């Protein structure tokens, strides 16, 4: 009996431990705004593509710089043969050697401008990565707030359905009391059906918004995600002039500036290649071992070469013209990128001012619509009003509530867009 009691006790304790440990693991932790953005930055394919492009540019720069460094080589070889002149043939012999050679380019203008091109390409790739990160963060943050807005609309639609059901019950009571016509019940039922349809559409919009959030976070579309309502992004104390000035910090503008630097280096390289090419190189070799031995174990030299194409069919001139046109194109794109960034920054700033003003107006409108509905319901209950008046007031309240929700989330969206437009971190940072 004691043994069975002990076994049952152990079994109960074991089940309790398993249940306790499984509970927190199975519970889904809501995703925060920062977590959604972090997931997008680490998993979104566009960021990975930009990272690989930067790695390629950095490797190309390392390759270009390597040519200006000292080059060391170990050379070992052996040969077997004879020598002869016009009258005699020498004996056959074997010669072997092991030597270390070193060389260094002292002057090469062509390599100098190739390095500048590679450096500009790295700067451009870095700006492209920053742009990809900013775009991924903005998309994820906006998708996050889209989910919250859709959920807020669902809550409003659910309240509307509950109010419509209460209105049906009230109309039926009024009919039973003999102070309302049967048509009031039919109108209330029609309004309830319309509210239920709106609720279904709102719930579908939540699912659509979650799909966009999963995609922006780089998750599988079948992954389960829930969100936690965060504090609104801090509103930037920016004037119109500050917003315009901040547009120059956009990654797109920085990349365009780097592209101009690359085009300038390309033009300089084309001009150098069109003229005499001067290269100065020094080299040295040391015989570590040689058989048969010689007295000169160390050999060094310094040399200069000048290369000039006497006729290339106009190739060099065409290359210079193409490089000059490429520079003009890059400069035009830089001006366009700055102008576009300034327009975006100003538009985002105006949108933020508009949204903040609409928040106060829509809240006042919602409060007034609430009072109007309360008055209409009171008159209807007292038999002094019509159900059409009640339904109209309820529709006005729904419209005011949805406008208030839209305005509040428009503020958050405008803050995100403004931070993006002036090159600030979309979430976090100053």
TrEMBL record:
Instruction: Spell out the coiled coil positions from the record.
Output: 115-181
The entry's cellular-component GO terms read:
cell outer membrane; efflux pump complex
Gene3D superfamilies, per the entry: Outer membrane efflux proteins (OEP)
Q: Which domain of life is it from?
A: Bacteria
Q: Which UniProt keywords apply?
A: Cell outer membrane, Coiled coil, Membrane, Signal, Transmembrane, Transmembrane beta strand, Transport
Broad class of where this protein is predominantly found: membrane
Endoplasmic reticulum: is it a keyword of this entry?
A: no
Q: Where in the cell is it found?
A: Cell outer membrane
Q: Where is the secretion signal located?
A: 1-27
The Gene Ontology terms for molecular function here are: efflux transmembrane transporter activity; porin activity
Q: Which PANTHER family match?
A: OUTER MEMBRANE PROTEIN TOLC, SLR1270 PROTEIN
Family from the record: Belongs to the outer membrane factor (OMF) (TC 1.B.17) family.
This protein's name: TolC family protein
């Amino acid at each position: 009996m004691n043994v069975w009691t002990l076994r049952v006790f152990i079994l109960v304790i074991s089940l309790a431990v398993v249940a306790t440990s499984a509970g927190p693991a199975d519970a889904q932790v809501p995703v925060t705004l920062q977590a959604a953005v972090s997931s997008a930055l680490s998993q979104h394919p566009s960021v990975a593509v930009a990272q690989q492009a930067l790695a390629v540019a950095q490797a190309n720069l390392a390759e270009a710089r390597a040519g200006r460094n000292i080059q060391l080589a170990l050379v070992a070889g052996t040969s077997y043969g004879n020598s002869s002149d016009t009258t005699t043939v020498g004996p056959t012999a074997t010669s072997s050697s092991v030597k270390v050679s070193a060389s260094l380019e002292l002057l090469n203008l062509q390599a100098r401008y190739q390095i500048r091109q590679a450096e500009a390409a790295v700067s451009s790739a870095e700006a492209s990565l920053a742009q990809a990160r900013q775009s991924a963060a903005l998309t994820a943050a906006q998708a996050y707030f889209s989910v919250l807005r859709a959920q807020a609309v669902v809550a409003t639609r659910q309240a509307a359905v509950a109010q419509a059901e209460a209105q049906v019950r009230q109309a039926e009571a009024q009919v039973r009391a003999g102070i309302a016509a049967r048509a009031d019940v039919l109108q209330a039922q029609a309004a309830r059906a319309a509210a239920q349809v709106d609720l279904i559409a709102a719930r579908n919009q939540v699912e659509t918004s979650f799909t966009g959030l999963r995609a922006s976070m780089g998750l599988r579309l079948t992954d389960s995600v829930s969100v936690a309502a965060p504090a609104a992004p801090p509103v930037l104390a920016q004037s119109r002039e500050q917003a315009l000035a901040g547009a120059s910090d956009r990654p797109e503008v920085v990349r365009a500036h780097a592209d101009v630097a690359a085009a300038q280096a390309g033009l300089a390289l084309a001009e150098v290649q069109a003229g005499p090419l001067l290269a100065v190189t020094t080299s040295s070799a040391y015989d570590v071992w040689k058989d048969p031995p010689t007295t000169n174990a160390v050999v060094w030299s310094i040399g200069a070469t000048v290369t000039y194409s006497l006729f290339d069919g106009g190739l060099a001139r065409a290359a210079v013209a193409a490089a000059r046109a490429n520079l003009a194109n890059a400069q035009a794109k830089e001006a366009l990128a700055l102008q576009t960034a300034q327009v975006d920054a100003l538009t985002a700033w105006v949108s933020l001012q508009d949204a903040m003003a609409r928040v106060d107006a829509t809240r006042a409108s919602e409060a007034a619509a609430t009072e109007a509905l309360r008055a209409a319901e009171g008159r209807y209950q007292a038999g002094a009003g019509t159900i059409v008046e009640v339904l109209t007031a309820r529709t006005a309240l729904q419209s005011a509530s949805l406008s208030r929700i839209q305005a509040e989330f428009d503020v958050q969206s405008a803050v995100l867009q403004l931070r993006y437009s002036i090159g600030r971190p979309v979430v976090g940072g100053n």
